[in-house]
Amino acid sequence: MNKPLYIFLFIILFCCDAKTQTEYITNGSFEDIDTCYGYPAGIGFDVFEWSGCKGWSNPIGSSSDLWCKDPKYGMSSPPNVGVGFQYPKTGYNMAAFLVNSGITQNYREYIQNELQQPLQLGKSYQLSFYIALQAVDCSPTSFGIKFYNSKYRDTTRLWLTDIMPDATNDTTLIKFDTLNWQLVTIPFKANGSEKFVIIGNFEDSIRLSYTFPCDTSFWGIYHMAGGYFFIDDVSLTELPFQEPQFPNIFTPNNDGVNDLWKVDLSEFNEVHCVIYNRWGIKEYETTKQLINWDGRTTSGSNCGDGVYFYVIQTEEKNYKGHIQLIR
Question: pTM, whole model, 2 decimals?
């Protein structure tokens, strides 16, 4: 076999064997559209539907925006929203939503995506996107996601702050720089069959988290934190399975160090853990996904020093091993 043909076959075999990561978001960069509007969307106007922006819609009466190249009406791309031009993260298009807790308390805008396929029960996923902030003080730092099995649409609503999101980002990681796009990641575990996801801010104004330092001296009855956020390159992928870690020693002596035998089994829906002493007598039992054994029996009495054995059953696989308890 000649060398070029050998290399060609190797590349084919390698590519076919490689595992590809499934992307669940439809049209994550907002590039697949029919036409472009070019103005901020008015209340009740679904600019995504009007533009034929594949996969995206406006879930409630407050209206998010879609900025794109060569608009039919209004401003050209990139948009100038009063503080300078903002370019998309990639391509020509991007969306934007407003979080306003000033004149109209709790006014929020959201974007909704129809996933390419439903999520699977018990699987861990991560939704990520890039945001760029219009330069304002006291900018909110919390972004949440809410899943539905069917499309959500209620034009009578101007906020969803009474709805508990399924997951939110780590607000301590938000450090806004108006010159750059910032990555936001939100890991979560699926309940199964989710087909639509809503993205936005679900915090009530009285609990709104925002950037510091922040001058609140002029605030009255309403919290004035708010912001206009451009969003681009939205992605949702399954996280790789993480094998649980099983510590083999712990010291439950109440000194604040290694007092618990901790095992995270949140990757599984069904958990049954039993801990036996060296004579095979059951000392502790739990069905919790997060195990925090403090060295006591199920009845509450202390277990003595020594070696103990755990047997953990899940819907997918079982685990066995030993633990050394030292007080």
Answer: 0.76
